[in-house]
Amino acid sequence: RKPDNLPPELPDDLDEFLAWGELLAAALLAVDSRRRDLPGSVKELIHEFLKNNYQKNIGLNDIAELLSLTSARASDRIQREFGQRFCVLLKKYRLEAACELLKNSGFSVEDIARRSGFKSGAYFHRVFHREFNITPQEYRQKNRKNDV
Question: Collapsing DSSP states into helix, strand and coil, what is residue 4?
Fold first, then answer.
């Protein structure tokens, strides 16, 4: 038996070995070029994901899959990167979108709730009031742009 610290011997068929090496190099290059299209950090990646998907029915498992982590590890990573739990962070993105729609659109509160990712207008109303101590309608009246 050979000691473990010695390098492996080259295979007898050097052409096959080189072909495998070229295949591996091409695969690594493809992975590297895809990574360059992604945001530069995990925090940016999570931010982009939430910015593009807050209105959908997403959860912690979606972030975990995106980061190739377990849900528990993804939760820890979000807490470390943002200082908040996932559900709090997602709610923040949804409420920011809702505020923009309340200020700049004529959509009904029910429609704004759905467009912002909330399951119902009633739930949105409760969350909004709890967060801002004002109803969505009152927020709209105070912050409405004149040209809408």
Answer: coil
Q: Which alpha helices (H) appear in 38-135, and where do they start and end?
A: 42-53, 60-67, 71-82, 86-104, 109-115, 121-132
Label residue 25 by pLDDT band (50, 70, 90).
Answer: confident
Check: CB of residue 102 under 8 Å from CB of residue 112. yes
- Stated pTM of the model: 0.71
What six digits make up the tokens of 71?
A: 């849900």
Identity at 43, one-letter amino acid code: K
pLDDT tens figures, 94-135: 999 999 999 999 999 999 999 999 999 999 999 999 999 999
Residues, the chain: 148
Work out whether the CA dihedral 43, 45, 46, 50 comes out positive or negative.
positive
Burial class (CB in 10 A: 0-12, 13-18, 19+), 114: middle
Lookup: tokens for 117? 């990712």
The two three-digit tokens of residue 37, written as one number: 């299209």
Nearest Cα to 78, choosing from 88, 70, 68, 86?
86
Six-digit token string for 70: 């377990």
If one counts every other C-beta atom within 10 angstroms of the C-beta of residue 128, the result is: 26
